[in-house]
Amino acid sequence: MLLLLSVFLTVWALCAHGQGSTCDFPQIKHGNIYDEDRYKQSFPVVPGKYFYYFCHHNFVSPSQKPWTQITCTEEGWSPTPTCLRQCFFPWVENGHSASSGQVHLEGATVQITCDTGYRLPNSQSNITCSETGWSASPICSQTYSKGKCGTPPPIDNGDITSSPVPVYAPGSTVEYQCQNLYKLEGRPTVRCYNGEWSKPPRCLEPCVISEDIMNKHNIQLRWIDRNKFYTQSGEPVEFSCKYRYRWISPEPLRTKCVEGRIAYPTCG
């Protein structure tokens, strides 16, 4: 009886001090913990265990340090591992802003003043740094009477299929195309209406899979015998384990390219 009571009190004490809690492997969007392949097998971990994580190119942690420490607590990871987009603000075409030449974090809003006779798309006065970059290009276009439009809005990694002209009549349309391997998202054609162009499409970044990355994860392309492979965003990619290795990671062997990123499976 005394032995059972002692066991009960020990379990109660452990739970009361949070020893029954654990932290799962942190899923960090746009980031990774230090030496992820080495430590991933040790999860879940108990409170008090700490790791360091870094953010991918063009992203930073809220502390903006190269390496940020996170600690397992009873409530989970502290601080919550987060990677924020960094947006460089260039000069304003046909306008000005006090933010020119500065870098802003995701969520920041920049005020823009256009020169007389110019304006931002949809008559906005600011643009915002988002996860995918600036919400609009900092270009002030010339305003025209009777619903005419200026040069169509530029897009990253793409352009219109025709030679641009200074002024477009109301109802005019232009078509966009992306650079090789980039995938067009949205309507390829925009229309001039009331002096404004309709929303342009986006060009989604392709994925590049190299032999070095696959060797690191002990995997290979299942159906393609190449050292480097390019695929468009949204396209499926299937891996297989190298000889004498087996699949050990939560990421599936069949995955897909998502705007330049792939969640690589691991075999060990």
TrEMBL record:
InterPro entries referenced in this protein's UniProt entry, alphabetically: ComplSys_Reg/VirEntry_Med, Sushi/SCR/CCP_sf, Sushi_SCR_CCP_dom
Keywords: Disulfide bond, Signal, Sushi
Disulfide feature: 149-192
Domain Sushi: 85-142, 147-205
Family annotation (Gene3D superfamilies): Complement Module, domain 1
Signal peptide residues on this chain, from the entry's feature table: 1-18
PANTHER family cross-referenced by the UniProt entry: COMPLEMENT FACTOR H, COMPLEMENT FACTOR H-RELATED
Full protein name: Complement factor H-related protein 2-like
Organism: Erinaceus europaeus (Western European hedgehog)
Gene that specifies this protein: LOC103128835
